[in-house]
Amino acid sequence: MTKNYLAQLVGVFGDPIEENPTVVMMEAAFAALGLNWRYINFRIREEDLAEAFVGLRAMNFAGINLTIPHKVNALQYMDQLTPNAQLIGAINTVIAHDGALTGDNTDGQGFVTSMRENGIDLKDKRIVVLGAGGASRAICVECALAGCSSIDIINRNEARGQTLSDLIAERTPADSGFIKWEGTARIPACDILINATDVGLFPGTGRPDIVYEDIHPGMIVQDIIPNPANTYFLQSAAKMGARTHDGLGMLVCQGAIAFHRWTGLEAPVEVMKRALEQEFA
Ligand code: NDP
Q1: CATH number of the domain enclosing 130
Q2: CB of 250 sitting under 6 A from ligand 1
Q3: What's the confidence (pLDDT) of residue 10?
Q4: Active site annotation includes 123
């Protein structure tokens, strides 16, 4: 598998990346399977992305992950996109094969997989999503393709929220509505509520400004923020009697899908999860 290379390389392009828990998760996965692979963190400025991809090709990387701010700009450097990445309009994973780069988006797929692993069937579910950024786009598209009946999007920025809602309504089988987020947001009746904003990322940073009394027992409430796992948002939802799930599962599952695309091997999911839990402890 490693042939003439000292080690097969994958990594993450982003800016700024001070600490990236994905590095720890992927390195643990390679070690567990005895692979001579490395996952390396690269700080790439926006204006240097084209050259970074030239370097990636020259150095025979097996692939790369992409984080903010490169997820959309990177599309132009791909030889092909998966159909889902094309619909989402952003990529977080690149697979290099025989000199060709394929752009994929495993964020939403990871979300849907982690839902399934938590025993949640998305079919015919009514979903409300807070936020309309990159992660929200990926989640909304994949949930719609997985069979949920409707996705309502609540967002401050009207253009971003409406565009995402139109994408879901026009290009997937699910219905969708947009609600502009002004003041404290009311939550319409739904089966699953998802926080896809970055409010609450890092301990002690608050919670989304919503009417928590709209959450009731029987609802599933999911945060995608992995750090801290038990966010203030989830704690508040649990107090209202909802069943809650944290963002660690999505992070592991999106990484496991990328790992499989690069190596062709099943990812050691439990090892990856433990590595992340230790990182965030
Ligand atoms: P983006 O910057 O693309 O989107 C951020 C979203 O949050 C926007 O919709 C923005 O609204 C909204 N937002 C920000 N601040 C507020 C606020 N004070 N009140 C209401 N809405 C707000 O980020 P991403 O989509 O890439 O990431 C979002 C989060 O998801 C991050 O915390 C990231 O860590 C997490 N994530 C988790 C993953 C996992 O595997 N668990 C994978 C990917 C991301 P507006 O449009 O109005 O500005």
Answers
A1: 3.40.50.720
A2: yes
A3: 79
A4: no
